[in-house]
Write a structure and sequence with these properties.
8 helices, TIM Barrel, globular, 17% strand, two-stranded parallel ribbon, seven-stranded mixed β-sheet
């Protein structure tokens, strides 16, 4: 009898834990953010129309100096008015050019040559620019190339108060209590199929995690690219499973994580 009672309480504990974990994402099994980097024309030409066609909202991390931003600012303003998030991806996308495989980094945009004050100023300038476009004062950030330091110093420490959260590039997904808001994990997509991406969504549902997709080109426009049909298939899957998946801009998910983590300290 004692063994049966013990097994009952173990089962009850597992059931309660599962119920708690499966309801933390706005009552759904998991959360998914669709993020797009670099402010390129295909964001406006392909990605946003695809999102709008199924009623989903994305997060677009904009480079302040992007030609697409300066030439098509009215279209970005419309995108923001329709619920898409405009995030900060710095003014000039500085990356550490001293790392392997970084021959694409120009000397002027080499993060290793930056100072903290320059990085801080340029990031704040981009926030001002974005505010002029969408009128918002709350923002999330994305680290260019995933680089977080100038030398041995984390530059985000100096700008953190200006942001709700920041997205990195490490491939992982985390349950709500394990999300690191100063460097949120994501999965960068470059040539993968819809089957692969949907597999990640299913894993997120099983583990009740936050899953963040990182896209660059959609149907071209960037050397990091996902085919339009694969992207659309993913969006349709997400739309078809909205009762199980909370799909929202990064800023909404980050605010939710912040509130949850603060409440459960």
């Amino acid at each position: 009898m004692k063994k049966i009672i013990l097994l009952f309480f173990v089962f009850l504990s597992i059931t309660v834990t599962y119920a708690q974990n499966s309801s933390v994402w706005n009552g759904k099994q998991c959360a998914v953010a669709l993020t797009y980097d670099d402010a390129i024309d295909v964001d406006l030409d392909h990605a946003i129309p695809a999102l709008d066609s199924v009623g989903l909202k994305g997060t677009f991390y904009l480079i302040g100096s992007s030609p697409s931003l300066s030439k098509r600012v009215s279209e970005w303003r419309i995108a923001a008015s329709h619920g898409h998030e405009l995030g900060n991806h710095t003014s000039f996308h500085p990356c550490n050019g001293q790392l392997p495989g970084r021959s694409f980094v120009k000397p002027d945009n080499d993060l290793s040559r930056y100072t903290i004050s320059r990085m801080t100023a340029e990031t704040k300038m981009t926030n001002t620019l974005l505010n002029a476009i969408d009128g918002k004062t709350e923002r999330t950030f994305a680290f260019p190339c995933g680089d977080t330091k100038i030398g041995d110093t984390s530059y985000y420490d100096y700008i953190q108060k200006d942001f709700i959260a920041a997205r990195g590039v490490r491939s992982a997904m985390q349950p709500i209590d394990k999300v690191t808001l100063t460097n949120i994990d994501c999965y960068a997509i470059n040539g993968q199929t819809a089957e692969y991406m949907i597999g990640l969504v299913k894993k997120a549902m099983e583990t009740h995690s936050l899953l963040v997709f990182l896209f660059h080109g959609v149907g071209g426009g960037h050397n990091l690219n996902v085919a339009s049909n694969e992207h659309t298939t993913l969006l349709r899957y997400l739309k078809d499973h909205e009762k199980e998946i909370w799909i929202a801009p990064m800023i909404d998910l980050a605010k939710h994580v912040t509130a949850y983590q603060n409440m459960n300290k």
